[in-house]
């Protein structure tokens, strides 16, 4: 399992720079009443949160603690989101 996690981590790593740039640029360029320093701080917070979550799930995957996704869970979550949108 450790090699599978390492493979997916290696394949996903190049996309991290693109995703971080897309997420962080609007926060860094916000020049409202809060100022640009607040936007940069939010962008750094988003990046640090990503790296903490990435490390947590990588460690959970290495010890085979992550459950397999079930198709029923996907169906339940999508129907729950449709119910939230409709009502």
Write a structural description.
The chain is an all-alpha fold and 87 residues long. The protein has one domain. 80% of the residues lie in helices and 0% in strands. The protein is built from 3 helices and no strands. It has helices at residues 2-28, 36-62, 71-86. Helix 1 (2-28) packs antiparallel against helix 2. The longest helix has 27 residues, at 2-28. It is elongated and about 50 Å long. It starts with a helix and ends with a helix. The mean pLDDT is 75.
Topology:
Elements: H1 2-28, H2 36-62, H3 71-86
Helix pairs in contact: 1-2
Main attributes?
87 residues, mainly alpha
Radius of gyration: 18 Å
Coarse shape: elongated
Number of beta-strand segments: 0
Helix count from the secondary structure assignment: 3
The H-and-E topology, N to C, reads as HHH
What is the average per-residue confidence, as pLDDT, rounded to a whole number?
75
Beta strand %? under 5%
Query: How many distinct domains?
Result: 1
Find the structural class using helix and strand composition: mainly alpha
**How would you sum up the major sheet?**
none
Helix content: over 70%
- Unreliable stretches (pLDDT < 50, length at least 5) are none
């Amino acid at each position: 399992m450790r090699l599978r996690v390492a493979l997916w981590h290696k394949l996903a790593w190049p996309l991290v720079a693109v995703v971080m740039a897309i997420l962080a640029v609007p926060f860094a360029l916000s020049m409202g009443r809060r100022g640009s320093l607040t936007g940069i701080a939010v962008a750094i917070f988003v990046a640090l949160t990503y790296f903490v979550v990435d490390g947590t799930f990588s460690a959970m995957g290495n010890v085979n603690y992550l459950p397999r996704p079930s198709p029923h869970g996907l169906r339940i979550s999508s129907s729950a989101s449709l119910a939230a949108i409709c009502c």
